[in-house]
Design goal:
It contains two helices and 35 strands. By secondary structure, it is mainly beta. It has two domains: about 20-315, 7 Propeller (Methylamine Dehydrogenase, Chain H); about 330-409, Immunoglobulin-like (Sandwich).
Length: about 400
């Protein structure tokens, strides 16, 4: 009977754990969204079939635009970069079909003041108060008047490959890549240095940055491998994992250890990792079957997914909690931990005495090693001061070590 219950529970969790995506209740329903930007006062959403910009001042509940937008439900190949400088002016750039475009908006996206078509726009970077850099396959362009007029910087960026795929910026350093090289600029695009990808790989396919490191997906003859490198000018790559199901992967979004990967696979178009790419699970549940994902953005605990049919949302903590619950079905039953999820404490039980209990984060950092024995073979661990998230608890007996995950809510 207990075995049957476990099967039923596993079926229930595996079919509902990732059904949290909900369509954002707004007038962006059925509007393709290929770029998202948020701050404390405004949310911006770029339209997937034009260079129109939607803006929201109520955290996505309603949206406005001064541009005439035709709802388009096709699948244009498009990447959109949205940047805002400290005066509230916005520059967006991307690909529409085979054409690149850039558009400048004033007053936090409310008014379009300039636009143009160029080669593929890869990134727009606010450099100073009114100065912008726009990075294209043709090189680097600069603007001294909030993106209204642009001038090519001769000699700057001319060593970029014409096949450069994408660029990302963090703390003033710009990272880009083509099929077999990494480009790094320590001065926001004024100069670039080239670095090879790890030996044994043919190309780098997708690429992302967190607050402290870089992560890259490198392709060889059979699969992708994930490497990370500390944030800095010269990459120093460390192997993370091999992944075999990302042959159609095309875009990522990452915050700390949380990593989303978008795929052109219609069955599983979005994957999620809670441990910086060591393991992945598909998280399509709840999406309209025709909703193709363009971009992912995290604001607070909310995950925003821009698709061909509007913006979907879920809570990052709900995805993490669902993964913990689904993984608890088939684990070793000798070690019991409860309640899970928990707010303030964990009870740990085992059939033999426990000599040590430790709590780690998902990167292996030791956070706690204190515990209290409350009865024979039963122990309590205080975790009240830990932030919300996923953690590992390891218990040592005289003969064995046991490790489980728990969710702090």
């Amino acid at each position: 009977m207990r075995f049957l219950f476990s099967i039923i529970l596993f079926y229930f969790i595996s079919n509902t754990a990732f059904s949290q995506w909900k369509l954002l209740n707004s007038n962006l329903d059925n509007v393709g969204v290929s770029g998202i930007y948020t701050n404390d006062s405004i949310w911006l959403a770029g339209h997937a079939a034009s260079d129109a910009m939607f803006y929201s001042t109520d955290k996505g509940k309603s949206w406005k635009t001064n541009d005439k937008v035709i709802v388009y439900e096709g699948y244009p190949y498009l990447y959109m970069s949205i940047s805002m400088n400290n005066t509230g002016n916005v520059v967006a750039g991307g690909i529409l079909g085979d054409t690149g475009f850039w558009t400048t908006y004033s007053n936090q996206g409310r008014k379009r003041i300039a636009r143009g078509q160029f080669t593929e726009v890869l990134l727009t970077v606010p450099y100073l108060n009114n100065e912008w850099l726009r990075i294209e396959q043709q090189g680097i362009f600069s603007s001294l008047n909030n993106g209204i007029n642009w001038t090519k910087e001769n000699g700057i960026g001319d060593n970029l490959s014409t096949s450069i795929r994408n660029v990302v910026e963090k703390n003033g350093i710009i990272y880009g890549y083509d099929y077999n090289r990494i480009f790094v600029s320590p001065d926001k695009g004024r100069t670039f240095q080239n670095y090879p990808i790890p030996i044994g790989y043919k190309s780098v396919d997708i690429f992302d940055i967190s607050e402290k490191d870089i992560i890259g997906f490198f392709k060889n003859e059979t699969n992708f491998s994930i490497y990370s490198s500390p944030l800095g000018v010269k990459p120093s790559w460390n192997f993370v994992s091999n992944v075999v199901n990302f042959s159609l992967a095309w875009k990522t979004f990452r915050r700390n250890n949380h990593l989303f990967v978008l795929s052109r696979n219609s069955i599983d178009p979005i994957y999620y990792s809670e441990d910086m790419g060591k393991t992945f699970v598909p998280v399509r549940g709840g999406l309209n079957i025709t909703s193709f994902p363009y971009c992912v953005h995290i604001v607070g605990d909310t995950v925003l997914l821009g698709t061909t049919r509007g913006i979907y949302w879920t809570k990052l903590s709900e995805i993490d909690k669902a993964i913990v619950l689904s993984n608890e079905i088939n684990i070793d039953k000798e070690l019991l931990i409860y309640p899970n999820p928990t707010e303030s404490y964990l009870i740990v039980e085992h059939s033999t005495p426990i000599t040590k209990i430790e709590v780690f984060d998902l990167t292996g950092n030791l956070l706690k090693s204190n515990f209290q024995k409350i009865s024979p073979n039963k122990y309590q661990v205080d975790i009240e001061n830990l932030p919300v998230g996923i953690y590992l608890i390891r218990a040592n007996t005289n003969n064995q070590n046991f490790t489980k995950r728990f969710f702090k809510k």
